[in-house]
């Protein structure tokens, strides 16, 4: 299975794994699964760091590498796919994650119930 982690799932996996369900931890740590983190998530978390809403000890990208997470680039196809999404969710970062999951055939791991309104596989965090 190929997973795409929502921003809060990335943070929970790094700093609060107890917030993740047993199924989520199993899926993230299963070596047969690939676990992707969107560059859009790095962007979102970097913005939160820069305005003081988030503190991450050390380098976020290094943490992702240590967790064996792969970076998913944002492609033009992903950006254009956002245009075709219904407005169930207005957060631009979440909409891009949904578009990426749909375009790449990924399962989106999130606890955001609003994302389940889209035609994309969801795994609860």
Largest sheet: 5 strands, parallel
Average of the residue pLDDT scores: 95
SSE class: alpha/beta
Total DSSP E strands: 5
| First and last CA, distance | 15 Å
Spatial strand arrangement across the major sheet: 3-2-1-4-5
Query: What percentage of the residues does DSSP assign to strands (E)?
Result: 15-25%
Spans of 5+ residues with little confidence (pLDDT < 50)?
A: none
Number of domains: 1
Order of helices and strands: EHHEHHEHHEE
Oligomer: single chain
What would you report as the Rg, rounded to the nearest angstrom?
A: 14 Å
CATH class: Alpha Beta
What does this structure look like?
The chain has 125 residues and is an alpha/beta fold. It has one domain: 5'-nuclease (Rossmann fold, 3-Layer(aba) Sandwich). Helices cover 45% and strands 15% of the residues. It is built from 6 helices and 5 strands. It has helices at 7-15, 22-29, 39-50, 60-66, 76-82, 92-104; strands spanning 2-5, 34-38, 70-72, 107-110, 122-124. A 5-stranded parallel β-sheet has the order 3-2-1-4-5, with helices on both faces. The protein is globular and about 35 Å long. The model has no long low-confidence stretch (mean pLDDT 95).
């Amino acid at each position: 299975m190929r997973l795409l982690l929502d921003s809060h799932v990335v943070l929970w996996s790094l700093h609060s794994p107890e917030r993740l369900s047993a199924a989520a931890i199993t899926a993230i740590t299963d070596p047969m699964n690939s676990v992707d983190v969107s560059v859009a998530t790095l962007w979102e978390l970097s913005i939160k760091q820069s305005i003081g809403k988030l503190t991450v000890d050390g380098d976020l990208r290094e943490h992702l590498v240590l967790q064996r997470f792969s970076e998913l680039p944002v492609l033009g196809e992903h950006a254009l796919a956002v245009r075709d999404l219904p407005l169930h969710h207005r957060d631009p970062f979440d909409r891009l994650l949904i578009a990426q999951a749909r375009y790449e055939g990924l399962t989106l791991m999130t606890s955001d119930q609003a994302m389940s309104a889209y035609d994309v596989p969801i795994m609860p965090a």
